[in-house]
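## Example pair
The file below holds two records. Each record gives the amino-acid sequence first, followed by its structure token line.
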Amino acid sequence: MIFMICVTLYPMLHVLFSSLSKPELLMAYSGPLIKPLGFSIKAYEAVFNNKYILNGFINTSIIVVSGVTLNVFMTSLGAYFLSRKDVLFQRPITLFIIFTMYFQGGLIPFYFTVKGLGIDNTFLAIILPTAINTFNLIILRTGFASIPASLEEAARIDGASDYTVLCRVVLPLAKPMVAVVTLYYLVSHWNSWFNAMIFLTDKKMYPLQLILREILVQNDTSSMSTYSEVGQQESIGETIKYATIMIVTLPILFVYPFVQKYFEKGVMIGAVKQ
């Protein structure tokens, strides 16, 4: 276990040490790092001074908050519907939904569908097409189905409607499963960049991950570098890449400890019984 912890933890430490190293020392060094080479925060200063990073944080926050809210709401409605035993055509509808996990229309039809709706170059193009994830729907549906039917019957005797049963009986008892699904959606939206790359043309609307992709893949750090000479700009460009990775990754890592207890319990409950 200690070996596995080291294997999984060291890449993050390597990125952290590289981001805090002096650019000229890092460029001249090769091999694993066990500590920063010197100490410098110039890369972080350059990243935070880049207006696109701040815009990326704001855009990603908007996408994550609105997207996760819509995801959990829609998934809860669908899971509650599929978990009720007296629903007409429940099995065919469930099989039809599962069918979409294995067979899709493809990228081109997806692009023309979004463009035909007139929501391209908006945040809706990123949020609406992923409103429900089939895998998360099945997890939540399994969790809802494990709740004793007697609780629902007791609520209906008191005059509760379907929405009341869902909000006051089912969801409070299914907090671990809801927390797991929320975490999945949160990580998915935070790491998402492909749909943004396809549908967003205004760089001011780019989410954080798409900006990170431009920095890493296209090797574009010129807007963040304060060095005029080519060699100096190239050296600090390397540390800027590592600093950007740390800034993009840390927020989502800080979220996990707060939902860990729900995550462990929810995965087990949602995976044991159909």
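Second record, same layout:
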Amino acid sequence: MLLRHREGVTLRNEGPQRANEAVEAYLLKEQNIGRIHDKLHSRAVADLLLGSCFQHAFQLIFLGKEETKEDRSEFANRILDTLFPGQV
């Protein structure tokens, strides 16, 4: 069943990797206009950003916790400050 699903997703150019590709494309544009350091590996940063968000959401759901808008903003800022020190 997974193989058939994977084939269909591939034919339609869909799948979970598309989110990473979209973030990578955005980061490349930001690098091209000089807003973020050109030495950053855009795909690795995209993977780190989305991976940290995925893990954060998983933990909240698993533990049955909710967070405030301020908590979400603080989480996002910590991640961005870590990946882009002095740039964002």
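Notes on the second record: The CA atoms of residues 2 and 53 lie 25 Å apart. The chain has a mean pLDDT of 94.
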